[in-house]
Design brief:
The protein is of the alpha/beta class and 162 residues long. The protein has eight helices and six strands. Strands 1-6-5-2-3-4 form a six-stranded parallel β-sheet, with helices on both faces.
């Protein structure tokens, strides 16, 4: 099953064009956090990727208690758990989708703030990552802090014939 899932994620097929997930591209922490009052509802289940020490996690938690905040760094997770024991913190390499699936399957929103995803060279990683999470979890929205994605989206035009 996992091989079929990976194939469905990384191979171009009709399913990738049937996603209904909204991708919200933000630039900088301020913009990223400004989305929380608009996109987060109390009944949501949130996966946060790249929580570092949990500062944004607490802002999300104020609106929605159902949050799993993750970071690749065990040191950051230890600090976050100490500072904010009421929030669930886990280690996660964002590109390890199998580990992400072990955390849950019903995420309605996914917040992504990973260092290095704002450079122009990282644009393909950003697109791959967001498509992978949208395909697997089918959240309503993925909010991502990525200047490169925001710039790319700003320059895109959705062609409509006729």
């Amino acid at each position: 099953m996992f091989c079929n899932l990976v194939g469905a994620i990384f191979m171009a097929n009709e399913n990738q064009f049937k996603l209904f997930t909204k991708f919200i591209a933000t630039r900088g922490v301020e913009e990223y956090r400004q989305t929380i009052p608009i996109w987060v509802r109390p009944e949501d289940t949130i996966l946060e990727i790249g929580c570092e020490w949990g500062t944004t996690s607490t802002v999300i938690w104020e609106k929605c208690k159902n949050i799993i905040a993750t970071d690749i760094s065990i040191d950051c997770i230890k600090v976050a758990r100490t500072k904010y024991p009421e929030i669930r913190f886990e280690t996660l390499d964002a590109f390890n989708i199998r580990r992400a699936m072990e955390l849950g399957s019903d995420f309605s929103k996914i917040y992504i703030d990973m260092s290095g995803l704002s450079s122009y060279r990282a644009l393909l990683d950003v697109i791959s990552l967001t498509n992978m999470y949208a395909s697997v979890f089918k959240p309503e929205a993925i909010i991502i802090k990525s200047g490169s994605l925001k710039q790319f989206a700003r320059n895109c035009v959705n062609w409509k014939r006729g």
